[in-house]
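During the no-cost extension, the postdoctoral fellow (Dr. R.K.) reprocessed legacy sequence entries with the updated structure-token encoder. One reprocessed record is reproduced below for audit purposes.
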Amino acid sequence: MRLTKVLEELGSSLKKYRNDGDPDLSGIQMDSRKVKPGDLFVAITGFQIDGHHFINEAIDNGAAAVIGENELELSVPYIQVFDSRLALGRAASAFYQHPSRKHKVIGITGTNGKTTVSYILKHILEHAGKSCSLLGTVSYIINNEVYKPSNTTPDALQIQELISESNDEFVVLEVSSHALKQYRIEGLELDYGLFTNLSHDHLDYHPTIEDYFEAKTLMYNYLKKEGSAVVSRLGEWGDRLDSILKAKEIPVYSIGYDDIHDLKIEDIKLNGESRFDIQMEGITYPLTFPSPGRHNVYNAAMAFLTAVKIGISPDMIAEALKSFPGVPGRFEMISHPEGATFIVDYAHTKDAIEYCLQAAQEHEAVKVKHIFGFRGERDKTKREHMVKASAAMSNEFTLTFDDLNGISEEEMANELKELNERFGMNKGRVITDRTLAIRDAWENARRGEWILITGKGPEEYQSMYELPTSSDKETLLYLKKMQNKEKVIG
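Re-encoded structure tokens follow.
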């Protein structure tokens, strides 16, 4: 593709272009080390590294043209823009020939539930005989090939490349607030934009909860002309978003408990599995969903409404929901030989923790125990609220290490002890080694207890712990295997 064709897409982001050539581009890169002859190099000003420092390296590696924000004189065509991140998304979309226009694209944003809703939708679509790619926290799935994700939402270049490679009819994409602020979905065009909820999170990145909410609303700038929104109005933020979108004349379909909503949730029963009714256009549909918890009722309802708007029959959706296999690391259940239930979940906000603990209570656990921690260099303002929630809703809890992210073990251990002393209601303790905290819970588990291990879900450990395992689930399976071996020897 010629450089001038890419330039046509830059629009308002274009500041200055020194027109001394129109090379035929062979690719686009934002990492100078990956540049090959004929590539367009986009210099991004990052949080730790400034790509402008590597422009000469990119040219030495064969870059045919460069996009950047600084005033520069180069030996190759140079395009100066106001924002390189925004320009990258638009340039990548042009280079890959606007791949989102060839698919039905569903973007999902919100604090909690993005991953589960995306997996439910993928399951429904495939049950209905449609093919579906998925880009999210747990994995990227393209043409039935599974790739390990780099972020909740890939960078702009990666998104366009992945979608261009997809032969699937649908693409479901988790969209984080970071991605929206950093223009990672720039150049993408959505058919549906889903909003699950909003709660206290990422205030290490966003200065206020209002800024966090406003970031979420940016997703709707990327709707196709005929695109529409599906909004959960089970909280005030959903109500606010509904008003904003309707003022922009964007079609909005909502879920809630009242008759004003397109999908009304009724008669929730939680006991081993989730049973509930939904009412749409005067018709009531009884649903069964194998994942426990009220929050999963909401997730299933969001997916149901979206699938109906896509054109799948309610009866087929109901049938698909019954066979949903779950999501790796999202309320993943592992049974204990003594009759206890262990849960591995990604919950890392106050609301998500409350959803998990509430699910245990609703299933009549005789005792609820909770193991969790906090990530270094991440939102510290939510930690107090998470501890208070656990102390209020569990019988006992253990604070342990999560990803330290450069924070010293001593500093994190001291903070865990302080949080426990101030807000633990005499229910908590600290065991810094995560695998030992899980082992202690395993060895002391009794029939009818629910033990929830939250924060990491399917993610691998970054720290080295005493047990030879690399994730929470692997630790539980290791302990189960060791216990079975002991029984055989005994």
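Residues 99-323 form a domain with the UDP-N-acetylmuramoyl-L-alanine:D-glutamate ligase fold (CATH 3.40.1190.10). The first helix runs from residue 3 to 7. The remaining legacy entries will be reprocessed before the final report is submitted.
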